[in-house]
Design goal:
The structure holds 2 protein chains of 2 kinds. Chain A is of the alpha+beta class. Chain A is 48% helix and 27% strand. In chain B, helix 5 runs antiparallel to helix 6. The model of chain B has no long low-confidence stretch (mean pLDDT 88). Classes of the chains: A alpha+beta, B alpha/beta.
């Protein structure tokens, strides 16, 4: 009888220790998960800034420049239209740029001397919530050879929550 | 009777105490094993996380370099790591894994690197792959303990092979270990100085010693920024074609034909997209050109014709000719004050 009571006590102690361990591990894993989601949001915000920076170096959007040209953030108007059309029409192109721009929207806003117009070159919207919106002043050139016209606009990069 | 009973109870007490100890020991061992498994698991996860973290940092540095063409950089890590590269033809990516980490970094960009690098410092070079318009930026990865030895037979006047060796020496990234070996003795010296080396030779002037591995370059008109063939002489010969000096350097940085062909297949798939972008750009500007600079319309029709030709041309010679024609059409456009394909 005494031995049975002692055995019951031991079992109870072991069970309590195991329950405490399980609760501890669950709590720790939840804490880790919330840390990870915080890091992911931070990375998403950073990636939007990186997209904005890398766009100006993208040869398929950049103005034609000679060695002496010093325009930074200069974009070719017809290249913007072409990218809009190609991504829309060609599934391979759309997949290719998904790797570069991820869940984001890239829009060029023409301000001067043309009437205010938006050209969305890329839009992959996985949710309706925007993480961050970056706007960068840019030069936009309509390159028609001798009759080239340069104007001003904004590059708008928006990121979406995953 | 009394004595017998007392002995019986004493035995029972001993059994009770022993049973208690055995139970505690078993329970203790189970808890100990559980805690130890947690410790080992967490250590494994910490190591994996560290390797993934190193991989992410390397990946960020490599992608950072991609923004500027003709750039060179060195990335130093705290300790030596085994970095493995593989080309995935199904997913159309290059994977990079640090110390066999469970998660690999994936790149859609074209990367030429040895299959395995064990080093604490990697060297990264970037060069445009262009056929009159930029198709992609190629990344080349190596380590300082790998030498690129350009072998030729020194003679007066300089042979075509020596001229090509000089051309390639200038084309290779400036920060890598590159050597010119004009004699077999120099070649033997350099091969003993480095843990890893690649011998690059030209046409038929390659090392003759049995068992020597080398990469043989045969360029049309001995011009390395054109097109030609590359042969990996590693046991048996495997041959592939190269297009432009960017492709040639890619072949030299690749350990075998399979890796090189897989990366180049991706580069050619990018070419289709970039070609379509250029074609659509001309289509988009044509209505405005008709209105403001109509003399340019027939000139740009020539660009369109060449771009259309490039669609199914997979042969290096044909693509090279298309690129030459497109550059000429660009020159004509510039002369007439018309837009160019760039």
């Amino acid at each position: 009888m005494k031995a049975q009571i002692q055995l019951g006590e031991n079992v109870a102690v072991v069970a309590i220790v195991i329950i405490i361990l399980v609760i501890g591990i669950t709590f720790w894993s939840r804490l880790q998960q919330s840390d990870t989601s915080g890091i992911t949001r931070d990375q998403e915000a950073r990636s939007i800034i990186e997209i904005g920076k890398s766009l100006s170096e993208l040869p398929e959007l950049k103005c034609y420049q000679t060695e002496s040209d010093s325009d930074v953030n200069c974009f070719d108007y017809y290249k913007l239209l072409s990218m809009n059309q190609t991504i829309h029409d060609n599934a391979n192109a759309s997949k290719y740029y998904l790797d570069y721009f991820g869940n984001s929207k890239v829009t060029f806003q023409l301000l001067y001397p043309w009437p205010e117009t938006n050209i969305t070159v890329y839009d992959y919207n996985s949710s309706n919530m925007t993480t961050l919106r970056v706007s960068i002043p840019v030069v936009i050139e309509k390159d028609l050879g001798n009759n080239a016209v340069k104007g001003f606009g904004l590059l708008l990069v928006e990121g979406y929550y995953r | 009777m009394k004595k017998f009973l007392s002995k019986k109870f004493s035995n029972k007490a001993i059994i009770e105490v022993q049973f208690g100890w055995i139970f505690s020991l078993i329970a203790g061992l189970i808890i100990f094993a559980f805690i130890m498994s947690l410790v080992f698991n967490s250590q494994k996860h910490a190591n994996d996380a560290l390797n993934v973290d190193v991989g992410e940092k390397l990946s960020t540095s490599i992608k950072g370099n991609l923004q500027v063409s003709d750039s060179y950089n060195e990335i130093t890590m705290l300790s030596s790591a085994k970095i493995s590269f593989a080309c995935d033809s199904d997913l159309k990516t290059t994977t990079m894994r640090v110390n066999d980490a469970p998660l690999a970094e994936r790149f859609t960009d074209v990367i030429f690197a040895p299959l395995v690098l064990t080093t604490n410092k990697i060297q990264v070079g970037v060069k445009d792959f262009s056929l009159a318009f930029i198709i992609s930026r190629f990344t080349y990865i190596t380590s300082p303990n790998t030498a690129y030895i350009l072998y030729y037979k020194a003679q007066t006047p300089a042979s075509a092979e020596e001229t090509m060796a000089n051309q390639l020496y200038d084309l290779l990234p400036v920060n890598i270990s590159k050597k010119m070996a004009g004699t077999p003795a120099l070649l033997a010296g350099y091969t003993s100085d480095y843990d890893h080396y690649k011998i690059i030779c030209f046409n038929n002037a390659c090392p003759t010693a049995a068992g020597t591995n080398y990469i043989k370059v045969e360029a049309v008109n001995n011009y390395l920024d054109g097109y030609g063939n590359v042969t990996w002489h590693y046991g048996s010969d495997t041959k592939s074609s190269f297009l432009t000096s960017s492709g040639l350097i890619g072949a030299i940085f690749s350990d075998n034909k399979q890796y090189y062909d897989c990366e180049m297949a991706r580069a050619y798939s990018f070419m289709d997209i970039k070609r379509e972008l250029q074609y659509n750009r001309i289509e988009q500007m044509t209505p405005d050109l008709n209105q403001y600079n109509f003399e340019c319309v027939p000139l740009l029709a020539q660009h369109e014709y060449i771009l259309n030709n490039m669609t199914n041309a997979r042969d290096a010679a044909l693509l090279y000719n298309d690129a030459v024609n497109l550059r000429q059409a660009n020159l004509d456009s510039g002369f007439m004050g018309c837009p160019k394909v760039s």
